[in-house]
Amino acid sequence: MFLHHSVTAYAAAILLSFHSWASAQLDKPLINPPMPFDKIDQGLLDHLEPTFSTSDAWGGGWIPKDCKDIVEGNTLKATDVEVFNVHYSDCSEPWIMCHHKDSPVSKIDMIDLFGRMPVRMRSFVRHLVAMPGGQSAGSNGDNIQLFGTANVISIFVHETGHGLDSHAFPPDVTPFD
């Protein structure tokens, strides 16, 4: 009985401590001056240098399974996708990118903006898939999905960051636990 009571008291103390911490976090003042979101993209472009690259197209009818699944999962046709390899000068392995014919994000923007990510960050991304739609993006299975006019450097940084969340820590470290 004593052990159970001690554990319960201990758990209650932790819960109260967390509640106090969480309440204090909610009471923080707003960032002042406000975050200059309108200047972030230009700052990133000014300081993330492009990486020299070349590209070559895959033959017609060939598409990686991940790209096919992503495109068809968004009710688009895989036959409307051009697949190409991108060879960046700072890595011996190419990246495979998939570009739907109706995507407003150009292949040049895909290559340039992704190439501005440091190679170590890029190494956690498998494929990039550009599709039509409203401006948004996402990560799924180490693939970056770009919709609509998502040709903004901060979107590339954000989505590439998800690969870091998942893979950049040693196997014995659990981040954010």
Labels describing this entry:
177 residues, alpha/beta, 6 strands, 19% strand, globular, disordered N terminus, signal
Description:
The protein is globular and about 55 Å long. It is of the alpha/beta class and 177 residues long. Helix content is 41%, strand content 19%. It contains 6 helices and 6 strands; from the N terminus they run H-H-E-H-E-E-H-H-E-E-E-H. The N terminus is likely disordered. It has a 6-stranded mixed beta sheet, with helices on both faces.
Count, helices: 6
Strand fraction equals 15-25%
Number of strands: 6
Q: Provide the succession of SSEs.
A: HHEHEEHHEEEH
First-last Cα distance: 31 Å
Please give the oligomerization state of what you see.
Answer: single chain
The structure class reads alpha/beta
Radius of gyration over alpha carbons?
22 Å
Helical content class: 40-55%
The dominant shape is: globular
Largest sheet: 6 strands, mixed
Which stretches are low in confidence, meaning pLDDT under 50 for 5 or more residues running? 1-16
Placed side by side, the strands forming the largest sheet appear as: 1-2-3-4-6-5
Overall residue-averaged pLDDT value: 85
